[in-house]
Design brief:
Elements (H helix, E strand, L loop, with lengths): L12 H8 L3 E6 L4 E6 L5 H14 L4 H20 L2 H13 L10
Antiparallel strand pairs: 1-2
Length: 107
């Protein structure tokens, strides 16, 4: 959802601007966080900082895009965990090993 636009930048414009600056960008998630990163020349960091500040302060979250992303996330879970016996077993092991963690327990 962080790539859907903001008050100042339309859908996909951040990526196009960064590409035009010769930047590499990506994101990844884990159980505890999501990281966004860009790799670009230091003399272009000012533009990147402005884009990131705008994205963090005024991102757009259109209801139709949120609904679409929920479905994408459900499908990713189905493919990576629910349909994979090793992933499912590891998830259950984690739930048993870390019973006092703040995450919901599996049933």
């Amino acid at each position: 959802m962080m790539f859907k636009g903001s008050a100042k930048v339309g859908l996909g414009e951040t990526s196009l601007t960064l590409r035009d600056l010769g930047a590499e960008e990506n994101a990844f998630t884990s159980d505890d966080d999501t990281a966004y990163y860009q790799v670009l020349a230091r003399d272009r960091l000012g533009v990147d900082f402005e884009l990131e500040a705008d994205r963090m302060a005024s991102r757009r979250l259109p209801a139709d895009e949120v609904s679409r992303e929920i479905e994408v996330t459900k499908e990713e879970r189905r493919l990576r965990t629910d349909d994979n016996h090793r992933s499912k077993a590891f998830e259950r092991l984690q739930a048993m090993a870390f019973r006092d963690r703040c995450y919901p327990t599996l049933t």
